[in-house]
Amino acid sequence: MAEVTLEQAPQKIKDLFNRGFVAMERGNLDYSVDMFTACLALEPRLYKARKFLRAAEIKRFKSKGGGQLAHLISSVSGFPSLLKAQTLIKSKPMEALQVIEKLLQKDPLNLNYVKMIDKAAVAAGEPDIAIQTLAMVLEHYPHDTTLLERLGRLYLQTDQPRLARDCFETLCEMKPNDSVALKLLKDAMAIDSMSKDGWEKVGTKGTKFTDIIRDRKEADVLARESKAVVDQNDFTVLIEENKARIQREPGNVNYRRALANLYAGNKRYVEAINTLVEAKSLSGGRDPQIDQSISALRLQIFDEEIKKLKMSGMTAAVEAKMNDRNLFVIQDLQARVSQYPNDLQIKYEYGVILFQQDRFNEAIQQFQASQRNAQRRINSLFYIGRCFEAKQQYDMAIDQFQQAVAELQVMDDSKKAVVYELGLAYETTGRAAEAMDCFKQIYQVEIGYRDVAAKVEQGYKAPSG
To answer: Residue 221 is part of which domain span?
Structure first.
């Protein structure tokens, strides 16, 4: 099947790709993987989506500390699926590809999975999928001669002798006395030299050498982007690449977001802010996510200045700068709440700041709105309860805590915090039995949580009424 470019894809797929791209540059790798996977479910020939999917998978895996133990665990848990893919390769290779893709989401650098997707892709008549994966994985296993040889052979099979030659030259450097590697290199050199148009075309597909150079550059950029830790050289390369992307597509907001992230990662905060301001202007001057990013960068500038002042021992200046920072936070949130009155996440953040400043009535107003955000509902109920508690309106505080507890099914950290506050409210209002029941719930799952052990044990010592 012929490759489908992003420009040729339907708008729905473009939208999914752009969401995945934005999520990736913001570090939301789970969502990024979901979006690129959705792209490929609709259009398997969108190879660009698969490149970014693989980069996001690798970055996520490495950010979670993926290593030999992670490979071992995934190999054991994924063995049944690996067997299933093996049985599907001959009869239903595309289904086999889908099975392996799910395994690669969990462990994209597992060589067993990589070799299997190679087999499945070739069986499905999609060797470019295998080439994409092998090329990116090879960046993380640069001394794996088996991967290198296989990639070179795939380049030969797909009429790309120049790239095959590069692989086999590296292979011969690593295995100088290996007769198979030497023969592969000679064959690639011979085919390359017989290519009709030499440097302008490679093989019979009519692929321009300039296109190959561009593809290899993109592969290098993706490999750098997939690193868990990016060094100074990577930053320089990626910054220049994103500047080039912006020149090619000046109206693409995503490239400016990515460039701003790179500047921020290199502590070039002013340049990052200026880039985001440009991106915001392309969005019509209104974009709550860009505004949030700009605010976060301004806070980082404050933090860097405070850090320097602390190192210099300038105590008074530190305190003054901290006051400036706190004032900026409240004014910035006020401005964003006003500009984006329907953004419930901003209302929640503003409510937290108001609560911390003991402005309880104003905080309640924000939390009553933000509880409509499903992701912030429990925390909003919790804070409303805390506000009522601070105002000594304990009956209403208890009502809010009870609502939150009813919606929490698992006794995790969130539920412990709510149940504990409910217990305190009961305790304050003289409802000792109900308070003790709350503390016992926590005691049974985490005896060391705050002072619940002392409260429960004291309750057992108290004389019964």
So the answer is: 142-229
